[in-house]
Amino acid sequence: MKARVDITLKNGVLDPQGKAIQHALGALGFGGVDGVRQGKVIELDLAETDPDKAEAALKEMCEKLLANTVIENYSIEVLG
């Protein structure tokens, strides 16, 4: 079973990498970009076949390792 976890910084958390991307886009002539927030995507291949169990395991993975829940939000998508 495949799954995807999207991790983004919470609102209010400074995003220096996003600012650097925004600046670089402006330098390349893309002046209409008012803000950039960057994140990460983690794709996993799971042996689990039950979608509910897979989602529960993914939540636990995010809480324990994949996301820093103090400053990051995450969303889980079980792809089947």
Question: How would you characterize this protein structure?
Answer:
This protein is an alpha+beta fold and 80 residues long. The protein contains two helices and three strands, in the order E-H-E-H-E. It has a single domain (2-78), classed as Phosphoribosylformylglycinamidine synthase subunit PurS (Mth169, Chain: A), CATH 3.30.1280.10. The termini are close together.
Notable characteristics:
80 residues; alpha+beta; Mth169, Chain: A; 2 helices; 3 strands; 35% helix
Counting DSSP H or I runs of 4 or more residues, the number of helices is: 2
Number of structural domains: 1
- Measured between the Cα atoms of the first and last residue, the distance is 5 Å
Provide the spatial order of strands within the biggest beta sheet.
Answer: 2-1-3
The top-level CATH class is Alpha Beta
- CATH topology-level name: Mth169, Chain: A
Mean pLDDT across the residues is 97
Structural class: alpha+beta
Return Rg in Å: 16 Å
The H-level CATH homologous superfamily, spelled out, is Phosphoribosylformylglycinamidine synthase subunit PurS
Would you summarize the structure shown here?
The chain is 35% helix and 28% strand.
SSE layout and pairing:
Layout lengths: L1 E8 L6 H12 L11 E7 L5 H16 L5 E7 L2
Antiparallel strand pairs: 1-2, 1-3
